[in-house]
Amino acid sequence: MRALARWLAEHWIAVGSPIVLLVAWEWASATGLLREAFFPRPSTIVGHLRSLVADGTLWGHTATTLVRIGWAFALATVLGVGIGLAMGIWRRLREGLDPVFAAIYPIPSVLFLPIVSFLVPPGEVALIVTSAVTSFFLVAFTTTHGVRQIDRLVVEAAVHYDARGWRLFASVLLPGALPFIFTGLRLGLGFALIVVVAVEIVSASRGLGALLWLSWQILKVEDMYATFFVIALLGAVLSYGLAALRARLLPWVQDVAEQ
Question: Mind listing the pLDDT tens digit for each residue in 221-248?
Fold first, then answer.
C-alpha cells in the first residue's frame, strides 16, 4: 500500500491528466458543448465497452490484433537488431544502406501492402510483414546508433585484452548498445500497434482496426469510441510494460529517451 502511495505521489501528473480529460469530456457532452451524438459521454462509452466484453466481440478482435502485433514486432526485432548491429560494426555496410533507409523510411508503411502482397502470400502474412516495416527501421536505426556511441577506447581496451570476434561482440558491443536497442524496441512496439490497426482498417475483417472502421461505417459511435479506448489502453500497457522490462534488465542505465 505504501509502495502504491509513493508511486502515485511520484506520477500524479501522469495519472491525473487522463482523469481530468475524461471529466472535461463528460461535462462538455452533458452540457451540450460537444454534440453527444458524435461525442458520447465517457460513462456511456464504458457501458458499451462492457457489452462488447460480455458478448465476446471485443475479446476476439483484441486477440487477433495482439497476435498480429506479436508477429510483426518479433519480425522487426530480429531483423532490426541484426542489421542494426551489422551497420554499427561495418562502416561500408552502413554507407551502403543509409541512403536506401533514408528513401524508404518516410513512406507510410500501409502503402507497402500491395507490394508486399506480390512478394509473400496475401492475407495474414502480407499484413504482418507490412506492419513490421516501420518498426524494423526504428529498431535498426537505434541499434546502429547504440553501437556507434560506444567509446572507442573501451573497444580498443577490450581488443588489447584479446577480446575479439564473438567475445568482443557479446562482452562489449551488445551490452553497450542495449539501452539504445530497448529504446528502439519501445518505439517499434508502439508503431507496430499503430500500423497493425491502420492495415486492419484497409484490408482486414477481424481485429480492432476492422471493428473501429465497421463501427464508424454503421454509425455505432459508442462502439467506435470503446474500440478507441481499448487501442489506447493496449498502447499504454505495451509501452510501459516494455519500459518496466528494460528497467528490470538494465537497472543501471537511464532510458535513452529520457536523457
Answer: 888 889 988 998 898 888 888 888 887 8
Distance in angstroms (rounded) separating the CA atoms of residues 91 and 206? 44
Q: Quote the distance between the C-alpha of residue 190 and its chain's center.
A: 1
The cell numbers describing 15, all together, are: 495519472
Name which residue leads in pLDDT, 11 or 100.
100
CA-only gyration radius of the chain, Å:
22
| 63-249 placed in CATH 1.10.3720.10 | yes
Contacts of 22 (CB under 8 A, 6+ apart): 42
Task: Give the CA distances from residue 223 to residues 18, 52, 59, 216, in Å, rounded to whole numbers and listed in that order.
Answer: 20, 8, 14, 8
